[in-house]
Amino acid sequence: MTAAAGKSPHPAFAHASEAELARILDFYDVRWRYEPETYPIGWNLDGDVVESFSPDFYLPDLELYVELTTLKQKLVRKKNRKLRRLRELYPDIRIKLFYARDFRMLMLKFGRMALIEDLTGATGQSTPPRPPASPAPQVSVLDPTGAAPSDEPGSVGRAATGDVAGGIASDLSRTGSRRRGRRRRASEAAAAALPVAPAGVESRGDPA
Amino acid sequence: MTRTADLQTDIGEVLLTEEAIAAKVAELGRRIGEDYAGRNLTLVSVLKGSLPFMADLMRQIPLPLRIDLMEVSSYGGTATESSGLVRIMKDLSATIAGEDVLLVEDIIDTGLTLNYLVRYLRGKNPASLRICTLLDKPARRLVEIPVDYVGFEIPDQFVVGYGLDYSERYRNLRFVGVLRPEVYTPPA
């Protein structure tokens, strides 16, 4: 959906920092879409997607995804793992990660440090969580780290369909053929630019 | 109580001395002078941060150049500017159509302002448009734009001085320094 400048119907952002970044992008006339695509990053033995990743923003004119993680550093480990997987599986994707420190520096640059506590961390979660998805099947995660996917606080309300595999047991006894199969599926998904989630909200008209 | 800025004690570290800046500006001026020899060069600077750099740089370029100034609103500059679009507070005074334009910036970090300005200036049909910045903070980059002349690549720290401000202060420092975090960290 494209909207005229200043009149974009902003989506229900999961976090206040995301809303702030959207306002900044609007201000500088940079078109964006909110969580427009979801990329599968984990499959079970049957080839079903059990974990996926939905970058917060896509900037179509820059061909760049932006992921905002304003939680404390120790809490972003799982998101870092997801990003590593995304980059492994979809090496052509350009994604910029904004950590809490990056966001603080951005707010400092714009003289909005007084708002920082309201825009970051758990207090910045501005929208209620979306209804939980269907319970995940008891399957194994195709992830070499063995870390189970989780609904970390920063991704509350995301449109991702794959973040549903809470409690999934890890299984590191993957065979080479299964790994190849996973990579093949990832390549196919990437080639098809496979959007699992509903299309995100797009803002901004064409640049001036 | 409002904190009082102090030019001496608020700076934690001098990142670039006055002498280092002067040497770099002279070097940039020589390069630009060679590259634009025989062409119609117009330097366009963006207020207010680029003012000292522009003033020094133009005197190091041995060409009969023109200068012009722009000012654009910054996000969050006032409460009412937290939404809407960049506004051109001061536009160019003369046409740049057919001119070779060099946009002079003090610092490039996110690239958001620069991206906006480049699109705006290209719409005025210059013969060419290049970018010169004294400071480049690539770790902050959101919008990748090719920069033709870079003075210094600096680490990801909040710097002030030589035109750069925090809350409109510290622009008059003769060097570039790192602001102490306690200056901008809200009191608990």
In short:
The complex is a heterodimer of chains A (208) and B (188). Chain A has five helices and nine strands; from the N terminus they run H-E-E-E-E-E-H-E-H-H-E-E-H-E.
Largest interface by residue count? A-B, 28 and 30 residues
Number of DSSP helices of chain A?
5
| Proportion of helical residues of chain A | 25-40%
Rounded to the nearest angstrom, the distance between the terminal CA atoms of chain B is 13 Å
The chain-level structural class of chain B is alpha/beta
Kindly report the average pLDDT value of chain A. 65
Secondary-structure element series of chain A: HEEEEEHEHHEEHE
Query: How do the strands line up in the largest sheet of chain A?
Result: 6-5-4-1-9
Low-confidence stretches of chain B are none
Q: How would you characterize the largest beta sheet of chain B?
A: 6 strands, mixed
CA-based shape of chain B: globular
Could you say which structural class the secondary elements and strand pairing of chain A correspond to?
alpha/beta
Could you tell me the strand content of chain A as a percent range? 15-25%
N- and C-termini, Cα separation of chain A: 18 Å
Strand content of chain B: 25-35%
Care to count the β-strands of chain B?
Answer: 9
Total strand count of chain A, please? 9
Q: Which consecutive residue ranges of chain A, at least 5 long each, have pLDDT under 50?
A: 1-7, 127-187, 189-199, 204-208
Oligomeric organization of the protein chains: heterodimer
Number of helices of chain B: 4
